[in-house]
Amino acid sequence: MMFEDDLMFSRSGRSDAGGKCTTRIDIPCSIELEEAVIAMATMRGVPKAEFVRGLLERAVWGDLAMLRRVSKQAGLGPWDQLPEGGR
Q1: Dist CA 3 CA 12 (whole Å)
Q2: For 66, which of 38, 44, 72, 79 is 20 to 30 Å away at the CA?
């Protein structure tokens, strides 16, 4: 059972770790590139825009920052620290 606080709407600003996605980037590309992006997004089960946004965020902010953002968003806590009593 879901409660109202658990709902995440696409425009609420709570569905993306970076907040509301209100700005667009329009770039020309080849049909082959677009088809490849669509195929990769489909394989991952995400929309094309979400797949491309993830690629851009990793390229700009780096893999380490992305791992931290994704683990925080998933509620996994600090993935790069050992749990209590670890080792």
Answers
A1: 16
A2: 38
**Single pTM value for the model:** 0.57
What's the rounded mean pLDDT across residues 7-30?
70
Reply yes or no on whether the pLDDT at 80 is more than 90: no
Average pLDDT for 32-53: 95
Nearest to 52 by CA among 65, 74, 33: 33
**Taken in order 48, 51, 56, 59, is the CA torsion positive or negative?**
negative
Note whether 9 and 15 are within 8 A (CB): yes
| DSSP secondary structure letters along 7-55 | ---TTSSSSSTT------------HHHHHHHHHHHHHHTS-HHHHHHHH
- d(CA 35, CA 41) in angstroms, rounded, equals 10
